[in-house]
Amino acid sequence: MKKQLIGDLGWGVGIVMLALCATWARGEGYIDGDTVTRLVLGATGLMVAWFGNRMPKTIAPSARARQAQRVGGWSMALSGLVYAGLWAFAPVDIALIAGCGAIILGMAVTIGYCLSLRGRARAA
What is the pTM for the complete model shown? Predict the structure, then answer.
C-alpha cells in the first residue's frame, strides 16, 4: 500500500513540477505555449498507461475480478499510450479529439467487459 501511494504521489508531483518548469521555460522564451500543453498532456497520457499497467498486478478477490483487471489494464495502458503519442506527434485539434476518444474507448471497453462478465455470472 505504501509503495503504491508513493508512486501515485510521485506521478502527481512530477506532473505539477513538469507544468511549473514548462511554464517557467515559456516565460523565459525557451518554448512556446503549444509545447507546454503537449508536454503536460503527454505526461498525463503516460500516467494513464502506467496506472493501466499496474492495474492487473493488484490483488483481486475472485477470478472474474482478475479477468476484469487484466482487460481494464490492457485497455487503459493502450489508450494512455495512444493519448500520449497523439499529443507528441499529431496536430493539436486531432490530438484533442482523438486522444480523448482513445481514453473514452479504453474506459468503454473496460466497462463493457465488466458488464459482460456480470451478465455471464447472473446467467450461470
Answer: 0.89
**pLDDT score, position 64:** 86
**How does the average pLDDT of the chain come out, rounded?**
92
Cell of 52: 493501466
| Helices 92-123 + 63-89 axis angle, to 10 | 170
Report pLDDT for 1.
63
HSE (side-chain half, CA atoms, 13 Å) at 46: 12
Distance CA 111, CA 59 (A): 19
Distance between CA atoms of 95 and 13, rounded to whole angstroms? 24
Q: Mean per-residue pLDDT for 93-97?
A: 96
**Which contiguous run of DSSP H or E holds residue 13?**
helix 2-28
C-alpha cell at 24: 517557467
Chain-centre distance for alpha carbon 56: 14
Amino acid identity of residue 87, one-letter, is W
**Rounded Cα–Cα distance for residues 119 and 62 (Å):** 16
Distance CA 117, CA 124 (A): 11
